[in-house]
Amino acid sequence: MANEYEIKKQICEIGKRIYDRNMVAANDGNISVKISDNEFLCTPTGVSKGFMTPEFICKVDAKGNVLQANGNFRPSSEIKMHMRVYEKRPDVGAVVHAHPTFATSFAIAGIPLTQPIMPEAVIALGCVPIAEYGTPSTVEIPDNVEKYLPYYDAVLLESHGALTWSTDLLAAYHKMESVEFYAELLYKSKMLGGPKEFDKEQIAKLYEIRRQMGLPGKHPANICAELGGKCGGGCHSAEGCNCGSAKADEPSVEAIVAEVTKKILAQMK
Ligand SMILES: [Zn+2]
């Protein structure tokens, strides 16, 4: 692993990218990187992530307590959300939170990114559900994000923004880029009359590519195989993966409609 100073420089570089790409406004957004089981580097609160230098970066322990903070810098107010990801996902090395415009618009509209519309998004992300709204800086957000952590590597935060995580910082940042790009395509294709979705067979082939690539992280391609078709919900419906419902362990709208229709038809006979 790169030394601590190099990682601090990388955090500044990624901060500049999320700022330059309009993924955050003013002082919004936050980034963290795991450097050991009990040491994490994170961006400070109240500063623009586009103009940071390594001295800005704070260090916290696994509970979010400050280990190091220069001058008046204090760790991000959203550090609890980051720490919950590390706690529940030992495979994760970095977490990025931003407010990219298209993804955040979906989060505000309450529409999850679950439509299978282009190969890269299906392979890289699978689906991006919406974690229920929580008040920023409280434990509400980590509590609401938690149930999605075993199944996904990205979530929208309802009426707020997006959260991504991966093995290292560049990968977590790329995930944020992919979420935003996917959201933009989905938005624009909706403007053009609605996207044409992949069918089950096409999705199954893309899942197979994902499995062949051996990519790290959680994805319906792997989860569905592991859980025999019960992958926590919110992902594409594909062969061997019967999980088109929006919530875990709840029947899908389609299933309810089919059941009700059957009952009504039975009564009419
Ligand atoms: Zn935010």
From TrEMBL:
Instruction: Give EC number(s), comma-separated.
Output: 4.1.2.17
Q: Is Plastid tagged as a keyword?
A: no
| Domain of life per record | Bacteria
**Domain Class II aldolase/adducin N-terminal spans what residues?**
9-187
Q: Report a single Gene Ontology molecular function.
A: metal ion binding
Q: Which GO terms describe its cellular component?
A: cytosol
* UniProt keywords, alphabetically: Lyase, Metal-binding
SUPFAM superfamilies recorded for this chain? AraD/HMP-PK domain-like
Please provide the Gene Ontology terms (biological process) for this protein: pentose catabolic process
The question of whether Coiled coil is a record keyword is answered with no
Q: What is this protein called?
A: L-fuculose phosphate aldolase
Query: Which species is this UniProt entry from?
Result: Robinsoniella peoriensis
